[in-house]
Design goal:
767 residues, alpha/beta, Alpha-Beta Plaits, Nucleotidyltransferase, domain 5, eleven-stranded mixed sheet, seven-stranded mixed sheet, 29 strands, globular
Length: 767
């Protein structure tokens, strides 16, 4: 080894984070050229390694650029640098990747099409004109095509496509933005599209996209194979097309997402803030819930009864070209039936979507991992409702180092979570664990994450509910692997997920408001006030227990919940009054419900705030039966609209055995009184939201005074209600309390697994 001469030095640099598949090595190559440095850069299974030598001033400039001007999709989490004597490199080169046993790297989510690639496939003189698989190091598929690390083409589903000389030259050129873009391809050598009819027969035609666009304009339903699976598409302005899609998909009312061509078209249909525009145009390109304009040409059948529309922009070249040709907003909803996983393979789609789609627009680039669209909203700040494409598998950073833990999540909106070192790998949205197909998706995705991130769990965590499919799976897995199993209370997991989402380790006052969670006392919880940390919790308050006549039947039929609450709180007289939501209840059914309540037959007790919203919605005549989860509560929120009104309904907080219980008799009496006086439903809904806000604020202020804790964590599906979330946040802040809400992780049960994993890690840490 030669000795340092003058100011010449060698830097050995290790970079960890999302630094592979995002143009990081050509970025380093170009920096080295700029600063006249020699050496090399290479990918390993766990990091990017760099050696550069030159004058000290040039090396300092290189380091500064490395930290401040990295590629747009790169994320540096760790950067270590050591200075050594130079070794006499003669050039700078990009060396082949180095596999390392046991090491892992962070993997980029799939990324929306970048502007330079969009210009390529829209340019008639470009060799990629109208090519629907155009991509570069700044955009395109990543996670959905990776089979293992390091991220190189032979370990992706692109390995079957041998690059033509022109693509290979781009791939080999460090100064080209397609240098080592693993999905790089063109019409000569890459994946191709095919249009098939409902029987799978190829539809002839030179321009598949143009033909597909004509079919969509003609009212047909197309199954379109995208990044992570199939989407079902139709004309969003056509009542007939949307109605047919709903009927075939067996989705009578649940809102559907819509894709529009660009921001100008978004503004034709919705109100959109600067923050929402940034979210729509971000590399994640999620669905964003936007305030729907009454002048929109999109049929109300897309989201019946709602004032918000789920909107996304095209995020692949195929979507861009379809939108350009159709010149229509298109429904783009998951390619599945009911709550099955999204279909990803061509033969699978033909089988599962037969009877729904009229035609199949498919391609021959295999999808390795299923991937739904992410759903977000802006309520003060960005809130993720469903975390998938564009976000997973990028990890949540932990404020501590963890043991390897697998947490299996909840029954609905399932995700799982794997901990390793300082990272929590929260999976993409898996779905409701109610069928064999979803369980298979769950198992396959766990296997993929464990392989990619080199995680062999030492602990398994699950929900305390004994009947959850994910809990039963965890029990079997822990026995097979002889691993400790930690059962975690549902609402404790909610609060801890919010704490980790905000990087907070100190104890908090947790407000966990949702529909259903298995309580420590065997009752159904869901309106909880906890003092919690990563290891445990104390239940300090809750909504009073009220009966759910029929159990699960009351969830599907909120009028039963309303009857149970009124009968328990106000007696027979309340049911004899002419109330809007109960007038259509059959007398025979009403008598049966009262007998159930009197004899306490299948009438479990619940403290759920989600059920409280359901009961009020049914009582005032908004929604007595639901077609999808939380429909009654959502429509109650919509009824309040933008009404600003003072006041609310009375309630009392009773201290019993050291626990504060919110009594609801006066609240229901007040609502009934206003119904009898003819007060508008919008005002009743707004005052009810004010009342729930006051409940939360009064309880938290009392608990803060008692405990000395001034931080409040809000979690649970009820806080998807943007009106409630914003009111509670504003009022708690004004009361001098610090408020934590979700922004990286869903506040609904999609975030449960993160809380489970962290609690299990900390419980096992203390033995």
């Amino acid at each position: 080894m030669t000795q340092a001469i003058g100011n010449r030095q060698l830097l050995k640099i290790s970079v960890r984070g999302v630094v592979q598949g995002v143009g990081f090595r050509p970025f380093i190559y170009q920096l080295a050229q700029k600063h006249k440095l020699k050496g090399w850069v290479l990918n390993t299974s766990g990091s990017v390694l760099i050696e550069v030598e030159g004058e000290k001033a040039d090396l300092d400039g290189f380091l500064s650029d490395l930290k401040e001007n990295q590629p747009p999709q790169a994320r540096i989490n760790e950067l270590s640098v050591s200075r050594q004597p130079p070794v006499g490199y003669h050039r700078f080169e990009i060396r082949p990747s180095l596999a390392q046993a046991g090491e892992y790297q962070l993997i980029s989510p799939d990324l929306a099409t970048c502007d330079p690639c969009r210009q390529d496939f829209l340019d008639p003189d470009n060799r990629r004109y109208r090519y629907p698989f155009t991509n570069c190091t700044n955009c395109g598929p990543r996670f959905t095509i990776i089979e293992d690390i390091p991220y190189d083409r032979p370990l992706t589903t692109m390995r079957r496509f041998r690059m033509c000389p022109a693509c290979q030259a781009e791939y080999d050129d460090p100064l080209n933005r397609r240098f080592h873009a693993q999905p790089n391809a063109c019409p000569t050598c890459g994946p191709s599209l095919e249009l098939a009819d409902a029987q799978g027969n190829t539809v002839p035609g030179r321009d598949v996209i143009a033909t597909s666009s004509q079919l969509l304009k003609g009212g047909k339903i197309l199954a379109i194979r995208g990044l992570g699976g199939y989407l079902l598409a139709c004309d969003a302005t056509s009542k007939a097309a949307v109605s047919a899609l709903r009927q075939r998909k067996k989705r009578p009312a649940k809102p559907l997402a819509v894709m529009v061509a660009d921001l100008d078209e978004v503004r034709e249909h919705c109100l959109v803030s600067n923050e929402e525009e940034e979210l729509l145009t971000s590399p994640a390109s999620p669905i964003v819930l936007l305030k729907w304009q009454s002048s929109s040409s999109i049929t109300t059948l897309v989201a019946p009864g709602l004032k918000y529309l789920g909107v996304m922009l095209p995020y692949t070249p195929l979507h861009h070209l379809l939108m350009k040709d159709t010149k229509l907003p298109l429904v783009m909803t998951s390619g599945n039936l009911s709550e099955e996983p999204i279909a990803k393979d061509n033969n699978e789609a033909l089988t599962r979507l037969r009877g729904i789609a009229d035609y199949f627009l498919r391609h021959n680039r295999d999808i390795y991992s299923r991937y739904d669209d992410s759903v977000t909203m802006v309520a003060g700040k960005t809130t993720i409702i469903r975390r998938a494409r564009g976000y997973a598998p990028y990890p949540i950073h932990l404020p501590f180092n963890a043991r390897p833990v697998l947490a299996c999540g909840a029954e609905e909106k399932n995700t799982f979570c794997l901990l390793k070192e300082g990272h929590a790998f929260l999976s993409q949205h898996i779905g409701d664990m109610e069928n064999e197909e979803t369980l298979e998706h769950f198992e396959a995705t766990i296997t993929l994450y464990q392989k990619m991130f080199r995680i062999g769990p030492e602990i398994i965590a699950c929900d305390k509910h004994p009947d959850y499919l994910a809990t039963r799976w965890a029990q079997v897995k822990s026995e097979e692997e002889r691993l400790p199993l930690v059962s975690v209370q549902h609402h404790h997991a909610h609060i801890v997920s919010c704490m980790v989402d905000n990087g907070v380790k100190e104890p908090v006052i947790g407000v966990a408001f949702d529909g259903t969670g298995y309580g420590s006392d065997g009752h159904i919880w869901g309106g909880e006030f906890l003092v919690a940390d990563y290891k445990g919790f104390q239940r300090r308050g809750h909504l009073e227990y009220l009966p759910l006549p029929g159990g699960a039947a009351a969830i599907k039929k909120p009028y039963r919940t309303a009857i149970g609450y009124l009968y328990h709180l106000l007696g027979e007289e309340a049911l004899s009054r002419k109330l809007p939501g109960l007038g259509r209840v059959d007398e025979v059914e009403l008598e049966l419900i009262k007998q159930q309540l009197d004899k306490k037959i299948n009438s479990p007790l619940t403290s759920s705030c989600g059920r409280l919203f359901d009961a009020v919605s049914a009582l005032i005549g908004i929604r007595g039966q639901i077609d999808y989860d939380a429909q009654a509560a959502i429509e109650l929120e919509m009824a309040a609209d933008d009404i600003l009104i003072e006041g609310g309904y009375p309630f009392t907080i009773e201290l019993k055995d050291g626990i504060r219980i919110i009594r609801l008799k006066e609240l229901f009496s007040g609502i009934i009184s206003e119904l009898s006086s003819g007060v508008a439903l919008a005002k009743i809904s707004a005052k009810f939201h004010n009342t729930v806000t006051r409940m939360i604020v009064q309880m938290c202020c009392q608990l803060a005074e008692q405990s000395g804790i001034n931080t409040v964590a809000l979690s649970g599906g009820v806080f998807q209600n943007r009106r409630l979330l914003q009111q509670v946040t504003t009022t708690l802040t004004a009361a001098g309390l610090k408020v934590l809400a979700h922004h990286q992780v869903p506040t609904n049960d999609g975030g449960i697994s993160l809380g489970q994993a962290v609690i299990a890690n900390n419980i096992m840490k203390r033995g």
